[in-house]
Design brief:
By secondary structure, the protein is mainly alpha-helical. The protein has a domain at about 5-100. It has helices spanning about 5-10, 20-45, 50-60, 60-100, 105-135, 165-170; strands at about 150-155, 155-160. It has a two-stranded antiparallel sheet with strand order 1-2.
């Protein structure tokens, strides 16, 4: 496999063109043009050194031209890559519609399965987003602590902080920026 086969393989497997690859291609292309001009000037009777100096003078600012050609090549490759991806997506979609239209029951099962999978994924993401990804709506949520007393009572282990203890900590503790209380309770709702 030669270096000439790489562009075809890249297109075959839809591999994106890298900036380094474009830079290398542009450098080879500009070098090829300068070498061609040197050969022409040498055929007119100039020495290799004189021909190279004259070719570079006529060529102009090599770095500026190289950067401009790289920018243009990258833009062209990106447009081509996007166009090829969109064309492949369109062809895949057309093939999918064609195959699914010939098998109605299978198509229905696929649509229901996809609908359920998307709904489940969305609800799981929403829950994870709310619980894990988004921080608590307080400043410095990593500094929030829970204070309480734990004791074993008649109903099992309980967790609580008495109002008197909260008042004491609120008035005397100097290590906290602020204190707040939360109270939860269980209730049984009946008729009426």
């Amino acid at each position: 496999m030669s270096a000439r086969d790489w562009p075809r393989l890249r297109r075959l497997f839809r591999l994106p063109t890298t900036a380094a690859r474009v830079r290398s291609d542009v450098d080879q292309e500009l070098h090829f043009h300068i070498e061609g001009r040197i050969e022409e000037l040498m055929a007119l009777g100039l020495t290799r050194a004189d021909a190279e100096r004259e070719a570079r003078r006529r060529f102009g600012d090599y770095r500026r031209i190289e950067s401009e050609v790289e920018r243009l090549d990258l833009a062209t490759h990106r447009r081509r890559d996007v166009r090829e991806r969109l064309e492949a997506l369109r062809a895949d979609f057309a093939y999918t519609v064609r195959v699914l239209s010939t098998q109605a029951v299978f198509s229905s099962v696929v649509v229901v399965t996809l609908t359920l999978a998307i709904a489940a994924t969305t609800s799981i993401f929403h829950a994870v987003d709310r619980v894990v990804l988004n921080p608590l709506p307080y400043p410095a949520p990593d500094r929030i602590v829970y204070l309480g007393w734990r004791w074993a009572g008649k109903g099992g282990i309980a967790d609580a902080l008495s109002p008197r203890s909260f008042s004491f900590w609120h008035d005397n503790a100097q290590v906290f920026d602020g204190l707040a209380t939360v109270r939860s309770f269980e209730a049984v709702l009946g008729e009426g």
